[in-house]
Amino acid sequence: MSDAPARFRRLAWRTVIGKSPRSVAGQVFLLQVALVVLLVLCAVLALVLQSRRDTTTEARRRSVAVAETFAHAPGLQQALALPDPSAVLQPLTEAARKAAGVDFIVVMDTHGIRYTHPMPSRIGERFVGNIAPSLAGKVYTESVHGPLGHEVQATAPVEDTRGKVIALVSAGLKVRHVTSELDRQLPIILGAGAGALAVSTGGTALVGRRLRRQTHSLAPDEMTRMYEHHDTVLHSVREGVLIVGPDGRLLLVNDEARRLLELPADSEGRTVRELPALEPATVELLASGREASDEVHFAKGRLLAVNQRPTDRAGGPGGTVVTLRDSTELQAVSGRAEAARERLELLYDAGLCIGSSLDVVRTADELTRVAVPRFADFVTVDLADAVLHGDEPAPARDIMPAARDMRRVAVSGIRDDHPLYEEGRLIDFLPSTPQARGYGAGRSELVTDLSAADGWRAQDPERTRQILDYGIHSLIAAPIQARGVVLGMANFWRAKREAFDAEELSLADELVARAAVSIDNARRYTREHALAVTLQRSLLPRALPEQSALDVAYRYLPAQSGVSGDWFDVIPLPGGRVALAVGDVVGHGLHAAATMGRLRTAVHNFSTLDLPPDELLHHVDDLVGRIDQDEADANRTGEIVGATCLYAIYDPVTRHCVMARAGHLAPALVHPDGSVVFPDLPGGPPLGLGGMPFRTAELELAEGSQLVLYTDGLVEDRARDLDEGLEMLRRALAGHPERSPEESCRAVLEELLPERPKDDVALLVARTRALPPGQVADWDVPRDPAAVSRMRGAVSDRLEEWGLSELGFGMELVLSELITNAIRYGSDPVHVRLIRDRTLICEVADGSSTSPHLRYAATTDEGGRGLFLVSQLAERWGTRYTPHGKVIWAELTLPDLSGLLDD
Fold first, then answer.
1. How far is CA 426 from CA 14, 378, 379, in A?
2. pLDDT per residue as tens digits for the range 585-617
3. Rounded Cα–Cα distance for residues 189 and 48 (Å)
């Protein structure tokens, strides 16, 4: 009953595919018996041949050993040097021949003339054999017909100490002696063959019995049809199939696998590492035997999806089965998707990298760097020269048919030795060039083959020849345009990759379009920056006023990133005094520059009132508050201007300096001995906050001291804190008392400022002078009308001493009027001071705060004409208030200023 299913399956197969008179097992048994017999016969024959070969090999080996041994024998070279070498060598070779078991040992010279031979009659004759290889230093074996018959011989060279061949030694055996050895082995070989035949026949019977069970006694035609069905299915599928054995040997390959991998016809049975057509990655996968699922491998221009599984999971034989599927078309679709992804990634990176600053040249350089090498091998950017100055270029129709005044502002590439035009070059493109056509039409130009572009080559024949020789072969010239205006051209060049195509032309357009917006923004910013700098410089002092109290030098540096509101001023005041002011307005651009101009004008105007520093800052604070309120009402943004200011007044007569500050940094004071201090100046709130008073500080400065006023851009930076900046300023100023203010400005900027300052910097350095006592005269005046005449006489005498007697009449009239008013309308004490500076200054002080006013007197008025006479005789006159009253002053022009200053 147990054999019923097997019989049923066998019957079913025979019903489908037919019957055969003899089973496969029976036929295989007969075939195997015949094969075994044949193999045994072949084995016997092979053993005979092998034995003969081994015997011959042994004969050759023995001949070589004997010849080499005798060639290196001690005393051989000395014997060869004797007059009769045969007498010595003949007995030695015969003894050695018998001991070594060879038939002959022959010693000969390099011409083949024998010194020795088993047959003495042969001595002196030429050796039979080829001695050329031995003369070249090699051991040579051969079979020849010599004096002893058919011989196997070996010839070895005899070399002296310098390696020169001086003789030859040949040893060998007769062939019949070699054959006799084989005859003695033949019975053993035949006996072994008979035993092998018996064993093999028995083994074949066992194999046939086992095969009968495994094939279920199927006939050959049945097995053939089964194989045909299997072969049809295996080779008709569209997937490649390989079966690899556990030792890495290729057991089966179907047609599709052979086609996909381009395997040779004899690939089955070879190890996968021996197949030259396979890629290394594929070989490693097939040899490893590991599982793989849809791994992509490159093979002969195709992308194959490879799956690999072991074959021994269900108890089958070891090894792996591999299936291959051509996924090239799918990968092509994926490749296009990958190209699109890379394109989007490039555009995304361009959006991040281009436009990081508001600098036209830097933005153009960022465009070149983001496109190399991901899109082009070389990129150049040419901008209209007007764009670099912030202006819009002339319309293309006005400059066609050529693109003129194009400045090359950026060049980037995979190598630096390219022959393209260098940065900074001004280029006029001919109408025939792609750049000119693209510039005029506002659309990109694609040149796939520059060698055939005659219009491009006409631009510069020598340069274009160098470009072509360099290997650059393809070009995209894309216009950089924003708001309908073409600003320049971006040129993309390729040398190492394939030429640009139409699809890449659109990518270049998108890339340049993103950069064009940033370049245009940078251009507009450049223009605004230039306008702001021009405005700010026009609002700052163009030249320092003439005065004798201070030696002054200054520096103003606008920020590279935007103009701020830094400012300074030097204002001459009555009495030979000088006011120094420095300030900073919060913000950048035209608004800050305009606000700075308003503040400087306000400070300049308030200084004409000769107000103390604290009162002047109070008035400016009110002005800034009103500006804030007006702008807040107009813009509804609540924008606060915000400003700081430092105001100082220096008197060269008393050497006193009075100063106050509103939110500004304290000045640096350099003493005549070179030491530097920062005076303890009371702080005040920034301008515009209101509600807080400003306080003054008064310093007495030695002659030759330097007062250094500056804005925060000099000492503050993101890379350092304020204290560090102040310490750097102190070090830059200290230890150089002999330096002029101009040299101090230069040293401070070199020490503290980077190459491109990020904030405006205003720096003012003033060296103090003192007015000599001989140029100042003081008198206390009693409140007596009679004192007026005495003062006129005293003043006349002093003017006589100063050599200014010609000014005596005018000065007496002015002094009489001012002293009379002080005695009549003022209060004690009355004091007169006369100062000889660039002008002759007369000051009358009293304790009253009432100020006289100039008016036109009627014909019937008895008074009111005094101040009118003063205004007519004096160059200037005015009133200033002091904590103890007022001072009325008047200035008269000196007749010869240069001569007085030389005294």
1. 94, 19, 17
2. 887 767 777 788 888 888 988 998 888 999 999
3. 7
